[in-house]
Amino acid sequence: MTDLLKIEDLIVEYKTRRGAARGVDRISLKLQKNKTLGLAGESGCGKSTLGRAIINLVPHPGKILSGNIILNLDEDVPYEGGIISTGEVNIPYLGEKEMRALRGKEIAYIFQDPMTSLNPMVSIGSHYVETIQAHEPDVEKEEALERGSKMLESLGILAERIKDYPHQFSGGMRQRVMVGLGLVLKPTLLIADEPTTSLDVVVEAQILREMAELKEKFNLTMILITHNLGVLAQTADSIAVVYCGRVAELASTEALFEAPKHPYTQALLQSVPDVTKPDKKLTWIPGAPPDLTHLVPGCVYNPRCPHAMEICRSVQPPLIEVDDSSLVACHLYGG
Amino acid sequence: MKQDAIVKGIFLRIGPMKESLRHQSTKWWVGFGAVIISAVVLLIGLISLAAVSNSGIGLQSVAISLAFAAVLLFVTTLAKRLDSGRWTERRPVLWFVPLGAIAMMDVVVSLGLLLAQEEWLRFTVEITFAGVILGIILLLYTEGYPLLRDRGSAGFITIAGLTLVFLILYMTAISDWIVPYAPFDINVGGILAAPSPRFPLGTTDLGQDLLSRVIAGGAIMLQVAAISVAVCFVIGIPVGLLASYKGGVLDRIVSLVMDSLFAFPGLVLAIALAAMLGAGVVNMALAIAVVYIPSYFRVVRSQVLTVRELPYVEAAIVLGATDREVLLRYILPNVLPSAVVVMSINFADAILTAAGLTFVGLGLGIDITDWGRDLTTGAQYLNVVHAWWVISFPGLMIIILALGFTLTGEGLSEILTPKLRE
Description:
The complex is a heterodimer of chains A (335) and B (422).
Chain A: E1 3-16, E2 19-32, E3 36-40, H1 47-54, E4 62-73, E5 77-79, E6 82-84, E7 87-90, H2 96-102, E8 107-110, H3 124-135, H4 141-154, H5 171-183, E9 189-193, H6 201-218, E10 221-226, H7 229-235, E11 238-243, E12 246-252, H8 253-258, H9 263-270, E13 320-323, E14 326-328
Parallel strand pairs in A: 3-10, 3-11, 8-9, 9-10
Antiparallel strand pairs in A: 1-2, 1-4, 4-7, 5-6, 11-12, 12-14, 13-14
Chain B: H1 2-11, H2 26-48, H3 58-84, H4 91-112, H5 117-149, H6 153-178, H7 210-216, H8 218-246, H9 248-263, H10 266-277, H11 281-307, H12 311-318, H13 323-359, H14 371-384, H15 388-416
Helix pairs in contact in B: 1-13, 2-6, 3-4, 3-5, 4-5, 5-6, 6-15, 7-15, 8-9, 8-11, 8-13, 9-11, 10-11, 11-13, 12-13, 13-14, 13-15, 14-15
């Protein structure tokens, strides 16, 4: 199995008035083809920043400071003035034109809020036509519409509704339209940034199931960003728990849910309500996520960690392999 | 500045109802209806004076333009029917049929009327234009009304405003052929004669027939307003789009310039510019345009700043859209409705400013028929010989025209931003 995406020592920094905040701090990840990686963590921990860095669109004032994001292309991608040839490309070093060719065509990105992700002034069909023609200028409008309606049909929306406008769709349908828009150019990598957070649970389940089906159908590799561990349990092959821009634990889904190793992962899992155990007392993690501009020395989790030791306050733990299926950054293991 | 105060005082207060548009009482509606109906009756009355026209073919002119309008209406309805059938591809061709037919008809009629060479060309152009305008009014009621009716009071207000504007346009277009006397002929009656059966609106200080001048006097104002609005639209919107989308230094500089312009009192700035540029329709229009460009810029800028942060713009970028596509396909369509609303209000303002400019003596020469000019001369005789008619009737026409544009603008702003109602 080849790696579709390799992230090496990535640092993304936000320059704020109060100092530099690292949204992503030396994260290294590998993602195999046709696998789903879940990124989990609290709000503001840097999981969305990581997703944005992969399409080189870190929101202002953020910037990729160093590190590599290597995408393995399996086909040539033409762009305005050249061709990106098959093989490895390093995303932070690509120009704007090359990046534009990759967005949508190779890497699709789906946003959290489907209600506002579609232009209210144009029909769904125009969205599809524009997206397709942005990458394949030779395609006629009729053909693009045809492809769009096929896409809608495969997502369970009637083909003739391609003439309709965004306000005529419900939230779940709009998210399906967005998913279809992301997939219509048959990308290899799909990044879904909390795709179901603003939907109700029934629609959420439907969309997740459909995305899983599409993943099979289109040979997709997926990165699913969410704060809902339940969503990841169903869909992800492996999960990276992110805390303060660093990976706390990277493990296969089974390993993470059965034997969470990092104290932060354990605490996260305990704060998820469980319907099968009504007597279980819900716990929460004391304290708040730290101020990213003034990080504590040592392990960033030490002020909130019940197992904090002396070494945690001075030495930052490296991400080390604990067993076959888990990598953990904690002094409790392999110290 | 006393004269300026009069102009402002008389006209600017009619900009109505910004607040009250959403909740009117029955009393309000009765008043509104009375104003609109009397204005429409007045305009139609003026047009129907064609029977006693100076040119001798006033009635024919009105009849021909009416016929043209009817053909236009017929063709549109036909085209709509055919739209559902198979003729769709050939539809545009249909438009050339009535246009050609009318042009031919005009030529034949004018030859029949034995007009001189130069005359019939003018006749053809003016009557065709008048016919198109009349056709638009008819279309407004047949096609537009069912659409606008659903929008409630905003729809009625828009229709009323558009009717006033287009009636005045029609009257102006056809004025050459329906005026009882040539509007610039002096001493056709006595000097400053009071309204009488022969001169229903009286005469001016040069003995010109005021009725003819009222019918024909809108041309300059409409031209000035149209040119200035076009200039504003062409400069204000692209500059606003580009500067605010790109941001940074460019945005700061442009905003600074626009805000400095905005800081001047509009009429004073227009007066200064008009004095600098000299007389002429285009110069007047430019002076007014400079005053109103900042309001377009501001509206566009605030809209762009909101729209460009919306997720769907970001989604477009993520799907690989270029800056140009984002600007033209995603931001511009969302900005245009607000710009159109500013435009219709801007029309009313431009007319009032044009009147103000003429009033303070920066308008066109004395040989041009213009409501603003009559206002200027009328003001001089108002107190001395109590010739109230010279200032009243042109002033009334300016009010009606400005009212038409204001109503259109207010109604459109309700219609184009449907979420205001929710």
